[in-house]
Structures are given as C-alpha cells and as structure tokens.
Write a structure and sequence with these properties.
- The complex is a heterodimer of chains A (about 475) and B (about 180).
- Helices cover about 30% and strands about 30% of the residues of chain A.
- The two termini of chain A are about 40 Å apart.
- In chain A, strand 9 and strand 10 form a beta hairpin.
- Chain A has about 475 residues and is α+β, with helices and mostly antiparallel strands.
- Chain B has about 180 residues and is mostly helical.
- Chain B is about 70% helix and about 0% strand.
- Chain B contains eight helices and no strands.
- The relative contact order of chain B is 0.10.
- Classes of the chains: A alpha+beta (about 475), B mainly alpha (about 180).
- Chains A and B meet through helix 1 and helix 2 of A and helix 2, helix 3, helix 4, helix 5 and helix 6 of B.
C-alpha cells in the first residue's frame, strides 16, 4: 500500500481512536436484566473438596448412629451386649439382633449396671429409635456434622463399639460407666443447618460458537464430481489420397495404363476433400478437483462423426461399363479383410481380356460416417472458481476406439467397415483442447457450456498405401455437473 | 480516570454487579462509538453494544491478560457487530465492484468532527462500510477480512477502494458546502 494511503488510514484511525459516545441508560438496564436471568439459570455446585468432605462426614455419621442404635436397643446383659457389639460386619444385622429389645430395656440395663436411677431424659428414648436401619437413616439426617458433635461420650461410645472383645466374660464392669455418660443427640432444627456458597470457574473459548458458525470457505481440493454432456458439432475425417499410390492402383486395375495422363505429374491427387456434416458426441465424465483451480477429468464418450467424402474419380471398364469408385477401392488395399462378396461389389471384373479400364476423374460425394468410443484424459485450470460464473481451460488427450465406418457410394452401396476388417486402427490418439464456462446453480450442481476441439495425432488407417486420415472433431457442448460433498 | 484494572477484572469474575457497572461505564462510551461505525442507526448500535457486553461479562474468566482489556473488549464488539450484520444479511453477495484506476487526492480530515465522519461512514453501502472499518480503522489485512467475511481478497480490496472514493467525494462536497457558506456570510 502506498505511503499516502497508509497515512490517510492512520488519519482515520486517529480520528476514531478517541471517539466516545454515551449510550442511552436503557442499554445498561437491558444488560443488567440479562445478567440476572443468566445468574438464575446457573445452579450452585459445590467444589469437589466440600462435596467429598460431606460424603465422608455422612458415612461417619451413619456408622456412628448405627452404633448408637445398637446400643440403645440392647436388652441383654452387658456380656451379651458386648458379644453383640462384636458383630461388626453388618450394622443392620447387629441391630436386627437387638430388634426384639424394647427401648426401655436399655434404661433397665443401666439401672442394673449402675444401680442408679437414670434421669427422665435418658429414659426418653425416642419411639423412632428402633433397630430398623431406616430409623438410623432418619436419625442421620438430623445429625449435626461430626465436627459439631464433639461430645467426648460420643467418641467414647464409638471407641467402645469398635473394640473387639473376644471373651464376653471379660467385660469390665468399669465400662458400664460409659453408658451413664452418654448424651442423647438431639436433632438440629432445619434452620440451623449451614448452607455453603460455592464458586465455580468455567474456562472456555468465548468465540467457539463464532468459529463454528463462521464458515471459512471450504476447500474444494479432492472434491469428486460427475457430469454428463452433449455436443453437436462437426466431424471431418481429413482423408488424403496418395497420388503415386493411386497410379499404382490404377495400374493394377487396368491393362492399358493411364489413358488420360491424369496422374502424369507428381501432385497429390486429393487434398482435403471431405466436408463435415452434423455430428454429435454424448459424454459421461468424472473429475477431481486437485486444488482450488486445477482439475483432472476423464470419462467415456460416444462419437457419431458424419461427413461427406469426395472420391476423386472412378475406374470404368470400357467394355462392361462397370465402374469402381476410387475411394472404396482404396479401402480394400493394405491388410484389408473384406468378404468376397464385398470385394466383388467394389472391384471391376477384369477377367475379360483385351478390354481396359479407364480412370474417370470426377468427384463423387459419398457419405462417410464413423462411430467411435472415446476415453478422454483432460487437465483443466479454472478461473474465478468461487464465483457463480467461472471459466475453465482444458487440454489433454483422447483415446479413440474405432467402432464402425459406413461409406455409402452414389450407387447406393454401403461399405460397412468394422475393426475385424483390419482397415482402420482399433485405437487412435487425439489431442484435445477446450474452453468451458461454468455456472454454479448451488454448492452441488453446475451447468456448463464448452467449446471443444480434437485433432487426431495418429493415422486412422492401418497400413493402407493409398489413404491417410487424421480426423478432426469440433463443437459446442452443454452439460450438467454434480459435485459430491465431502 | 484512574482505576485498578486487575481489581476490576477480579470483581467482574466474582460477578460483582458494582464492578460490572464500573467496567461498562469505563468502556461503554468507546464501544458504543465503534458499534455506531458498523451499523446504520443507533438502535442497531445499542443491540450490538448490549450483546457485546453480555459476552464480555460471561467470558471474563477466559481473559488471560495477554493484551490490554480495552483491546479484548474491542475485539468482542467488532466480532459481535459482524455477527449482527451477517444475521441481518447485510453482507450476503458481496462482489467485486469496478473502480476505475484514478489518482485519488486524499482529502485531509482536518476540520471535520468525528460525528460527521461517522455519518459519512454510515451512509456507505453495508459491504463498503464494513470493509472500510476493518481495514482503515481496525487495521486488519485484506486477507484477514476476506476470511472473516467469507469473500475473496480481491472483493475486499475493491470494496475498500469504492468506500474510499465515496468518502472522498463526500468530504469534498462537504468542504465545498462549508466554503460556500463561509463566503455567503
């Protein structure tokens, strides 16, 4: 960018760097309202250390309460109680063992052990204090956290419960005093429960949605497409007669040689004497986008090439007035393999001696139609590929597979030549080029119009001494293309 | 205005409403001016500003402090404005505009108020306005603009050239009008 443009941009930038405009008050009100809505929507989640701490505390509380329930529900003698406490594996089982114990039995045991009357508070065993595990849970819910329940008696009771007394008889009467110091744990009212506020930090990309939504232009590299097209156009076989060969052919046919000196000179008899007629080509193509601009295409086409070829003359048997056109005759030379009937149709009968043939130089037009299968391999470069209208330059080669040729003489005889007749090369190579205009209907579908030209690089004829042919094909095709989405 | 940016950020991270209001008061004016540059009217600019600050407050935790806070907020405002324009379909079908090659004499901006220049920018076609803002004022390159707006680099350049031409014409016309007014007096 030029210095002056840069300076101008800097000038604009400076003007707006300090630009400030007070927004109306309703903007902040709207922001505040949305922030409040967002805040309500977010649930409070405890941090991990508090959650796990609470879980650990809950487990301890359950164990502790379960132990208390065991102790409360016992009716046996201290020895039996001790024996029950040894059953540590399943507090439910332990409590079930004491399930038949009336709550007041505990008080009786205390009385019997201490000999002292207990206060009404200690006797006031809650009806819910049964050995039912559910009750243990109900109690647990109302329990303060162990940190708050720091009664030494509670701890002592737990210690007592956890001790394993192997021999029930060895229970020390002194332990009885522990029971006298047990304090009932009153459930806390709900209002006293502490609530905890947690703060959660969430780290994420604020522009993640935008990066997803912002569709960057999709690269079309390695995108496959398929297309069909139809091309009306022209086909020119571009046949040439070799003059010397014509002389030799004439000499072979006639006994008197040339009669009119037509071929006394060395000029080639014919140049390009073919006229193209309306031909058509139907194609199915596949292609791949190698990059944004480059493509590689192939496919298969059927070519119906119609033309008019001019035979330069004919041979005439002066006696029988039989004539043989030069062009069809020329086809029969080389390694041609026609049926005897066909040969008889086209050649003069020279069995009658003494009568010669003459060559009559007279142009005779004949329909000369070909059928080929073509396999192209083309490279293309597309200009403006991202636009609705884009242009592609094409170049490459085509393999032509000969199918049939029909040469119709003026007399109405049709000489049909197939690959097995060994007249034409079964395969030929053409160079091809074209320009294509593409119109993008949507991301998948295109329609296009292209101008194409092909010129054969190899001679169509197989070892024919008289004829050469390097056909040309040209036309404008219309096609549709479908791009497979990756 | 002296304020502790770190304290402000930590307050916003704590979702402290006072800190959030303070942040809005400090940067709201500048960001509103930016929103006006990208939109055609004050209502649209207010929508853009509102959406942008919501994003700022919700994503303040992701601000790492690599760049100044103002720059971070500004980037959010510009992206929000572009998203708004795309939603309004103002940026669809941006194509190359033919601008004949001619030596444009850059008219000096001295003598103009920024609000006048703002109005000139708002009067530009949407595509030219956006590209001009991004290139001439925000300082993005044409390649970056092409990626942001999903257009070609050539289209970005041609849209900017068109914007420049239109702005210069407005500046000249406005200057001429001012001169004539002065003469009449």
């Amino acid at each position: 960018m030029s210095q002056s443009k840069n300076n101008n941009n800097n000038e604009w930038r400076k003007f707006f760097e300090k630009a400030v405009e007070t927004p109306p008050p309703n903007v902040w009100d709207a922001i505040e309202k949305r922030l409040d809505e967002n805040l309500k929507a977010k649930p409070l989640i405890a941090p991990w250390w508090q959650r796990y701490w609470l879980a650990a505390a809950s487990v301890l509380v359950v164990l502790g309460v379960g132990t208390i329930i065991l102790l409360v529900n016992r009716t046996q003698s201290p020895q039996e109680i001790v024996a029950n406490l040894n059953v540590k594996s399943n507090p439910v089982q332990s409590s079930k063992a004491a399930s038949n114990v009336e709550p007041q039995t505990f008080a009786q045991i205390e009385e019997s052990s201490t000999g002292e009357a207990r206060s009404a508070e200690h006797n006031a065993i809650q009806p819910s204090l049964t050995s039912d595990p559910k009750t243990s849970v109900a109690l647990d819910r109302n329990m303060r956290s162990p940190a708050e329940s720091k009664s030494p008696n509670w701890v002592t009771l737990q210690t007592f419960a956890s001790e394993t007394v192997a021999d029930a008889k060895k229970v020390d009467i002194e332990h009885k005093s522990l029971f006298s110091n047990v304090e009932w744990i009153e459930p806390s009212p709900v209002q006293e429960l502490k609530t905890y506020w947690q703060r959660r930090y969430i780290f994420y990309n604020p522009y993640a949605n935008e990066s997803v939504e912002d569709d960057l232009p999709k690269s079309e590299s390695s995108t496959l497409w398929a297309a069909v097209s139809f091309m009306p156009g022209g086909f020119n076989p571009n046949m040439e007669f070799n003059h010397q060969s014509v002389y030799q052919m004439d000499h072979a046919l006639s006994t008197s040689g040339f009669t009119n000196g037509m071929y006394a000179n060395n000029r080639s008899v014919t140049g390009n004497r073919d006229q193209p007629k309306i031909s058509y080509q139907a194609s199915a193509q596949v292609g791949i986008n190698l990059s944004k601009n480059w493509t590689l295409e192939s496919g298969i086409s059927y070519l119906q090439g119609n033309s008019t070829s001019r035979s330069p003359g004919f041979f005439l048997n002066k006696m029988t007035q039989e004539s043989a056109d030069l062009l069809p005759n020329a086809l029969m030379y080389g390694k041609a393999n026609y049926s005897p009937e066909t040969i008889e149709q086209l050649q003069l009968d020279n069995s009658i001696e003494g009568y010669s043939t003459v060559f009559v130089p007279m142009d005779k037009n004949m329909d000369n139609n070909y059928q080929f299968l073509q396999v192209p391999l083309m490279g293309g470069y597309t200009f403006r590929p991202e636009k609705k209208f884009s242009y592609t330059m094409l170049a490459g080669g085509i393999t032509n597979i000969f199918l049939t040729n029909k040469l119709e003489t003026m007399s109405g005889f049709v000489l049909e030549t197939k690959p097995e007749n060994n007249v034409y090369n079964p395969l030929g190579i053409s160079a091809a080029a074209g320009v294509r205009v593409n119109y993008r209907i949507n991301n998948a579908w295109y329609t296009n119009l292209s101008a194409n030209y092909q010129h054969s690089l190899t001679d169509s004829f197989k070892d024919n001494p008289f004829l050469k042919s390097k056909p040309q094909v040209y036309g404008i095709s219309w096609g549709v293309r479908y791009t497979f989405q990756n | 205005m002296v304020f502790d940016e770190k304290e402000l950020i930590s307050g916003c991270r704590a979702r402290d409403r006072v800190a959030q209001k303070r942040l809005y008061d400090i940067y709201g004016g500048k960001m509103y001016a930016i929103s006006l540059r990208y939109t055609k009217n004050s209502e649209d600019a207010q929508d853009v500003l509102q959406d942008a600050f919501i994003k700022v407050f919700e994503n303040i935790d992701s601000f790492r402090g690599d760049s100044p806070l103002e720059f971070w907020i500004r980037t959010i405002v510009v992206n929000t404005a572009l998203k708004f324009l795309k939603k309004q379909k103002k940026l669809i079908g941006l194509e190359d505009v033919y601008e004949p090659e001619q030596a444009i004499v850059e008219h000096p901006l001295a003598g103009f108020q920024w609000k006048q220049l703002m109005e000139f920018i708002q009067e530009l076609p949407a595509g030219c306005q956006t590209v001009f803002n991004l290139f001439a004022i925000e300082g993005y390159k044409h390649q970056e603009i092409a990626e942001m707006l999903n257009i070609s680099e050539g289209t970005s350049k041609s849209q900017f050239a068109r914007a420049r031409t239109l702005l210069q014409q407005k500046l000249i016309k406005e200057q001429r009008f001012d001169n004539e007014s002065v003469k009449k007096q």
